[in-house]
Amino acid sequence: MIDKFDFDATLLTTNFATRLLAMEVDKDVLIDRTLEAFCDLGSCQNATLMMYDDHRQLKGVAASVKGRRFTINEEIPLTDAMTEAADSLRPVVRPVCNDTEFPLPAKSCASKNTCLCVPLVGSRDLIRGFVTLYRDKSSPWEIAELFQLGIISTVAAVSFENSKLFRQTIEDSLTGLYMRRYLFIRLSEEVQRVKRRHGDLSVIMLDIDHFKLVNDTYGHAAGDKVLKAVADVLHKSSRKGVDIPCRYGGEEFAVLMPGSKKEEAEIVAERIRRACEENIISASDCHIKVTLSSGVASIDECDPQSGDELLRRADKRLYRAKESGRNMIVCIDS
């Protein structure tokens, strides 16, 4: 039984964790918060998050081992424990598998640890994935912990559903970057933040050099691969959960960088430019190399301080880079 004091404390802790999950729509942040919530409420340092993809293939997403978090990108075989947890919609306790770096349930083993397999039950009782946690057999999971984890599992599953729906409305389907309209929403929010609290805000505007020639020479399918390759560079060069990389239109891109000075944005722009210049893109029976021209601006240069003025300055510098020979970055007005 959970006495009144424990019950109140349990609800308080669960409420805090559910709010953090329910308010988040960024998938990467949501993954991190889900692992954090399960480890905190399950009083352990080891957990694995697995999710079904669009083809209903179960894949490892991320794990925490002794407090160290890392991503996983591999198919996970469905175990008997997972099947039982999915059928019952309840957590299942099993021995922990010793053959993997991250915790997964096993049928039996000599391990001194036990594995708790928690189903992520979403809308219409659809199983979205599983979270597995393990700790020493001498510390079995209490009723209060199972109560908390059961609530968190549903909130996490529904939050991932909402995140997917939200991303479909703001992401470019070809590149996976944010759409232009989302850039305008976030830009307005960040400008207001700067006006209230001060701070830094910069933007990089980028354009693929001679992209029309790529389409005319190699075809639109090859052009799409080039767009995806450039988008991948932007993804890898941006800070997850902080920067907003967008497809601005056609072959033009933008990276909004909250909290970054112009000098910091210039470093990122150069990193992107160099990565694209060195990248060889394979498309059907050909190999393509492209370059980028970029313009960089910061909010403290703008008078008045507005999102429109920030984009106008960066765009003007982008076209100066084009006129000056391409494959370069311009950070100041002539």
Automatic annotation (TrEMBL):
Pfam families: GAF_2, GGDEF. GO terms for biological process: cell adhesion involved in single-species biofilm formation; negative regulation of bacterial-type flagellum-dependent cell motility. GO terms for molecular function: diguanylate cyclase activity. It catalyses: 2 GTP = 3',3'-c-di-GMP + 2 diphosphate. InterPro entries: Diguanylate_Cyclase, GAF, GAF-like_dom_sf, GGDEF_dom, Nucleotide_cyclase, Rev_trsase/Diguanyl_cyclase. GO terms for cellular component: plasma membrane. Its EC number is 2.7.7.65. It is an enzyme of class 2 (transferase). It comes from the Bacteria. Residues 199-334 form the GGDEF domain. PROSITE patterns: GGDEF (PS50887). PANTHER family: DIGUANYLATE CYCLASE DGCM-RELATED, REGULATORY COMPONENTS OF SENSORY TRANSDUCTION SYSTEM. This is diguanylate cyclase. It comes from Maridesulfovibrio hydrothermalis AM13 = DSM 14728.
